[in-house]
From TrEMBL:
Record EC number: 2.4.1.-
Source species of the chain: Ostreobium quekettii
Entry's Gene Ontology molecular function annotations: dolichyl pyrophosphate Man9GlcNAc2 alpha-1,3-glucosyltransferase activity
Pfam family, one: Alg6_Alg8
Membrane association type: Multi-pass membrane protein
Places the protein is found: Endoplasmic reticulum membrane
Lineage: Eukaryota, Viridiplantae, Chlorophyta, core chlorophytes, Ulvophyceae
InterPro entries: Glyco_trans_ALG6/ALG8 (IPR004856)
Region of interest (Disordered), ranges: 412-436
Enzyme class: transferase
A Gene Ontology cellular-component term: endoplasmic reticulum membrane
Ranges that cross the membrane: 12-32, 120-141, 147-165, 177-204, 234-255, 330-347, 354-372, 392-408, 447-467, 479-498
Pathway, per record: Protein modification; protein glycosylation
Record's keyword terms, sorted: Endoplasmic reticulum, Glycosyltransferase, Membrane, Transferase, Transmembrane, Transmembrane helix
Name of the protein: Alpha-1,3-glucosyltransferase
């Protein structure tokens, strides 16, 4: 993100917004997590149940086990801002359908009207939070022409994994992702306190937003250390620190008033007994579990330390680079690298956490169209077992095909002559420059890579249909998807780290 670029045409913006709304409505017509699956249902029921709990019980009981709050039945396990969102939405939806959030009697409530209300609540969240953040972000991407800005907007609003998880599977990730994007816009435009507050709000909505914390920390620290004089440095660090502490205090104070409330909230947010991963997720620990039985060999405590060390080692190059050479370009790469490091190596990773990787990669589409094309396709494939259980195979195919058709490679110069002579320092600041021939080569590479991913996905899907899994290995097809996707994500992290460390010194 950098200075202002050319304004995009309003026709293009309207077209992207219209398409984004259309695909959300279309995906919302399908099934969702746990639909009709008595007695526990799924994520849809969890979100509805949280509205039921927050509207009918006092704040002090939201995270505590009581006779009216059975934590084993979808107890709230997201941070405070998510609980307050459920409280607000619950009060609004109660005006239209009181029965859908009635205490105890509404478990598994799935009328056509309540489904419509719930679906609309996700669309409204997108429009109020993610859409404005995407509009602001597209205007700040460096090097993007008016057409390039439309492509950035398309990548952010038509990103298939985010659409199918929020509007198909059923969640509200757009709120935390939109707040995090707003925080990123704030810090790269010099509004460090505002950016810190917005990012902390994102973190207090979904704690998996922690994936971005190293990028924010290193960039803000690097900018603070560039201030002139020790006093200015201390003041800059203190302002951001106070903004973080103040935001957390406001969000957590209602729960801290009850004795033991902080500890109970932390236990709900970080249930370490669940293990290093749930289901099949395309990260290092799950992919290697077929050879190394990590859970049996190490135990949870030792495995948590190993995950923490591995994640830190994967984060360090990107963090140190931004502390030494903070830049808006580098910050975008650092967000992607930080999220990839957490997704691949941290403890207790969910398959849906890949959404945090895709958002900053969407911002890099002007400079990294190949990665921006490949990452969402591989991410969709990695989540297919989850989507298949939800009955979203048709939406999976349609969204993947639609995203494949987006012209992502047109975000930069395509027919330029030789670029003007630049010094080595200027080249490092401006990043890679593409001549017309360079863009033609990239086009070919992009489509060749996309074709390879499509071919691999077809083979994996054909295997699921044509080859019954052996009784000894009933989840072999899910594991095969992990074994394909995990190395791709690893290569992606290595490449993006290489680009950040070699091309983006300020």
């Amino acid at each position: 993100m950098g200075g202002e670029a050319c304004s995009p045409g309003w026709q293009g913006v309207v077209a992207v917004v219209g398409a984004a709304l259309l695909v959300r409505f279309a995906v919302g017509l399908g099934p969702y997590s746990g639909m009709g699956n008595h007695p526990k249902y799924g994520d849809y029921e969890a979100q509805r149940h949280w509205m039921e709990i927050t509207v009918n019980l006092p704040v002090s009981d939201w995270y505590w086990p009581t006779s009216d709050n059975r934590l084993e039945y979808w107890g709230i396990d997201y941070p405070p801002l998510s609980a307050f969102q459920s409280w607000l939405y619950g009060h609004v939806l109660r005006q239209f359908d009181p029965d859908m959030i009635a205490l105890k009697t509404s478990e598994g409530y799935e009328t056509s009207y309540s489904k419509l209300l719930m679906r609309w609540s996700v669309v409204v969240t997108d429009v109020l939070v993610m859409f404005p953040a995407a509009f602001a972000a597209m205007r700040l991407v460096p090097g993007a022409s008016g057409r390039g800005q439309i492509i950035v907007l398309s990548c952010l609003l038509l990103q298939p994994a985010a659409v199918i998880i929020d509007h198909g599977h059923f969640q509200y990730n757009s709120l935390s992702l939109g707040l995090a994007l707003g925080g990123a816009i704030g810090v790269v435009t010099g509004r460090h306190v505002l950016g810190s507050v917005l990012f902390c709000l994102a973190l207090n909505h979904k704690h998996m937003t922690l994936y971005y914390a190293p990028a924010f920390f290193s960039y803000l620290l690097g900018c603070s250390l560039r201030q002139k004089g020790p006093v200015a440095k201390v003041v800059a660090v203190s302002k951001c620190g106070l903004a973080v502490l103040g935001t957390f205090l406001v969000c957590w104070l209602p729960f801290m008033m009850r004795p033991g409330g902080t500890q109970q909230l932390l236990r709900r947010l970080f249930p370490i007994e669940r293990g290093v991963f749930e289901d099949y997720v395309a990260n290092f620990w799950c992919a290697s579990a077929v050879l190394f039985k990590w859970k049996s060999w190490m135990g949870n405590e030792a495995l948590m330390k190993a995950c923490g060390l591995a994640t830190l080692l994967a984060l360090l190059p990107s963090m140190l680079h931004q502390i030494r050479w903070p830049s808006s370009h580098g910050f975008m790469y650092s967000m992607a690298n930080s999220a990839l490091a957490f997704f691949l190596f941290s403890y207790q990773v969910h398959e849906k956490s890949i959404l945090l990787v895709l958002m900053p990669i969407s911002l890099l589409v002007v400079e990294e169209p190949l990665v921006a094309r490949m990452a969402p396709m591989v991410a969709m494939l990695s989540m297919y077992p989850l989507l298949e259980r939800d009955g979203l195979a048709l939406q999976y195919v349609a969204l993947s095909a639609a995203f494949l058709c987006l012209p992502l490679q047109n975000g930069g110069p395509r027919k330029s002559a030789q670029p003007p002579a630049q010094s080595r320092t200027q080249r490092r600041k401006s990043g890679p420059q593409w001549t017309g021939a360079g863009w033609q080569t990239l086009d070919s590479l992009e489509w060749a890579t996309a074709s390879f991913v499509i071919f691999a996905a077809l083979v994996l899907h054909a295997g699921r249909v044509a080859v019954p899994p052996p009784s000894r290995y009933p989840f072999i097809h899910d594991a095969a998807i992990v074994w394909f996707c995990c190395p791709v994500f690893l290569m992606m992290m290595c490449y993006l780290n290489f680009k950040q460390l070699t091309s983006l010194r300020a």
